[in-house]
Amino acid sequence: MARAVLKTKTRTLWGSEFTIVDGGLGGSEVVEHITTIADELKKARKEVDRQSSLVRLAEQTVMEADRLTGEITAKATAFANGMLREVRTEPEQTASTTVSEPALERVIIPEAKPGAHAIR
Known about the structure:
Elements: E1 10-13, E2 16-21, E3 24-25, H1 27-97, H2 101-119
Antiparallel strand pairs: 1-2, 2-3
């Protein structure tokens, strides 16, 4: 007696193969497929949320960098302007505080000699 070989009918949908039973798709396979899709959707939503958070963080970082750039520029400009004022007035101050050579010999050299001897 010859045995009949049962051939299972299947149908491929959305990249997955489903067994055909009683004119429809196998229930357990459909549930498994939908569960997998739901898990993938959940992961995708989390990734979108994560990327949205990163975009917001990047935007805040750029705004903070712009603010700090303004502060640093203002401080650097104020410092440079102060230095420029000092450089412009320095020759006048230097001219009025220049030590004459006789004063150098009378005051500064005698004060420096004991320190110089101590170094030897």
